[in-house]
Write a structure and sequence with these properties.
Shape: globular
CATH architecture: 4-Layer Sandwich
Largest sheet: 7 strands, mixed
CATH class: Alpha Beta
Order of helices and strands: EEEEHEHEHEEEEHHHEH
Structural class: alpha/beta
Number of domains: 1
Number of helices: 7
Strand order of the largest sheet: 1-2-3-4-5-6-7
Helix content: 10-25%
Length: 241
């Protein structure tokens, strides 16, 4: 149980955009609920961000929406389920944020990616999903996205917002300590430290996100923000603004 049941099923959050709440995964031995985002492009193809567990039931739901054209690993941590989606959808292109390939290799994972997620004029979702690589960290380079039609900002780990009542009891003090407990979820303290020498780059990225004018913010871990998106961004990133 993750507190975000039902799991492994599409949940609409706007026109042509859905989330999938996946099962708990373990990172450094700790269980985390996680979340995938699916966008249907104008072509009818599907763009899948941070894929989670692909069950037979979920696959039937996905197939009813359209063809899976793009699989996105948005940072060096969120790539684990890419291979099972590739097996199910061999024609899909797999996109990796900077650092993903190296991380997978260091973990003994052999994953084939078609292209790295650099912003550029040839992205097939140009004009539908804006994209930026957040720079400035010595470790963490995350691709963030803005679905223009639904005004939805899609983040991964730059904000984590775990609801204490929905996580294991022994994680609650840990999440409060590292600053990722709802209602004041934000960037984990250890990640924040990796930006300490390049805070200006992080500030510029946050200002760009705010400038996109999002109305909601999807995050991969914990409660996501269905309204007051700009206010939540200013709150979560107040340490750098």
């Amino acid at each position: 149980m993750t507190g975000y049941e039902p799991l492994n099923t599409l949940k609409p959050v706007g026109e042509d955009i859905w989330i999938i709440d996946g099962p708990e995964i373990r990172f450094y031995g700790l269980p985390f609920p996680t979340r995938c985002t699916v966008v249907r492009l104008r072509s009818g193809g599907l763009w899948v961000h941070s894929p989670t567990l692909l069950t037979n039931t979920l696959r039937a739901e996905i197939d009813a929406l359209g063809s899976v054209d793009h699989l996105v690993a948005p940072n060096w941590i969120h790539y684990a389920s890419i291979p099972e989606w590739q097996a199910a959808y061999p024609k899909a292109r797999a996109w990796a944020a900077p650092g993903v390939v190296e991380r997978a290799e260091s973990q003994g994972r052999s994953i084939t990616f078609d292209q790295e997620l650099w912003a550029g004029p040839n992205l097939p979702w140009l004009g539908q999903i804006d994209q930026m690589i957040v720079e400035g960290s010595t470790v963490h380079r995350e691709a963030v996205f803005f679905h223009t039609a639904s005004k939805t900002l899609i983040l991964t780990d730059l904000i984590e917002n775990f609801e204490p009542r929905k996580v294991r009891w022994y994680l609650r003090p840990v999440f409060r300590l590292v600053g990722i407990a709802d209602p004041d979820g934000k960037m984990p303290r250890d990640m924040r430290m990796t930006f300490r020498k390049n805070r200006d780059q992080l500030r510029e990225a946050v200002e760009t996100m705010i400038g996109w004018g999002p109305e909601q913010v999807i995050v991969s871990h914990g409660r996501w923000y269905q309204d007051n998106a700009v206010e939540e961004l200013r709150r979560a990133f107040r340490f750098v603004l």
